[in-house]
């Protein structure tokens, strides 16, 4: 037994009893330790997402940037670009125009198609119709909901992806960049190449 420091008092020690079985505390702890073990599932971390992966040379075009050219697509893309540049359409009306596909034209009536019902609002349709009429195009429009394969937004995204691919090709094929990578182990930081 250790000696107590000067002025300290020793407290009495009591043995703890288990109230249910009147066993000393040490025996209760031993009995509880002998119970069955419960298996806990281990969660395996998934592979890093696409956002954290290194960008390969000439990355694939995302689905939102792919489009299939249609007969009316060139006219619709030019018309929408003209309206946007003139600030004749803004906000939801601008999104309706950018996300829609011109399906058919019949005299003064144009049929548009959008994928999202939320863009097909009566006020947005009327404002787009008024902007088209003021620009000398359609006097009436109808908007249906369906699959869009050619819209101004998709054409713009495809053009941006092509500019990005060309900028990456220019950098990756530059002899000086290749020598830095080969001789010094230099690497291009993903996302650092931007088209001019």
Automatic annotation (TrEMBL):
* Family annotation (InterPro entries): DNA_pol_III_tau_dom-5 (IPR021029), PolIII_tau_V_sf (IPR038249)
Residue span of region Disordered: 1-26, 52-72
Residue ranges occupied by any DNA polymerase III tau subunit domain in the UniProt entry: 71-192
Which species is this record about? Acidovorax delafieldii 2AN
Organism's domain of life? Bacteria
Any one GO molecular-function label of the UniProt entry: DNA-directed DNA polymerase activity
Q: Which Gene3D superfamilies match?
A: DNA polymerase III, tau subunit, domain V
Protein name per UniProt: DNA polymerase III, subunits gamma and tau
